[in-house]
Amino acid sequence: MKTTISTTLILAALLAGPVAAADRKELAQLQRDIALLQDEMRSSIKGQNDRLIAMESMLKTMLDQLAATNRAVTVLDGNLKSRVEGSVVKPVAGLNSRMDSMQEDYRYVRETVGELSSKLTKLSTQVSELNDAIRTMQAPPAPPSADPLGGSSSGPPQGVTAELLFQDAMRDKSAGNSDLALRQFADFLNWYGSTDQAPEAQYYVGEIFYNKRDFENALKSFDSVLERYPKNAKTDDARFMKGRTLVQLGQRNDGATEFRALVKTSPKSELGRRAQSELKALGLSAAPAKPRRR
What we know:
Number of strands: 0
Distance between the termini: 138 Å
CATH architecture of the domain at 162-281: Alpha Horseshoe
CATH class of the domain at 162-281: Mainly Alpha
Helix content: over 70%
């Protein structure tokens, strides 16, 4: 680059020959300018070289620092993994083992509580039966009669209220003591047949007979609900169960008549829908049968 600039300047000086010959001072000045320019160029190139060297040195320093940082990160990562394994992974593993043990203990406690609950239920039933036996011993029933319910015709014993007797009968019915419940409902009807709960007692008597497959007495009980207590909370229930009882007795058309009556009086009720299902199961329509033409 230096040679090119110098050659260019010399050629320029030769082309200006006549002028240079006329004025040597200007030529000398030109030579001095060229020399100064060359010095400036050498100085500029040297400065650039120095800056490149400095940048190379700085880059090398940065690379060394980066390598040192990577080594430090690697060491830190190893230390961190070691600490995590020591302070987190092992304790968590121990905690999981403890949780498993606690779950096993909880399962055992739950099973034990279930067994105790079952024993308490049996004990409660036995206490109830014992109370009934004591009450029966305190008030011996009257001699058996032709009444299928087996109820007592004498007055209620002292301390036996309608509410208490009805509750005892319902409890024994729920516990499966159907014979005892039947006798208690019979006593209730004999002693408290004009109370508000009498229709319910009569209905449950029919239900017990139905579940015992004594359909004749069940039919009588449901008829008693409809005839003696025509408007009560158990009217629809008694009509529905009367229909089912008639079907069980082989009186299919009479049962369908009860179902249709229930659909007519309570079409949107739950029992009305069940009556429709019973008719459908019998292959019959909910509409009343049309009279035959003569």
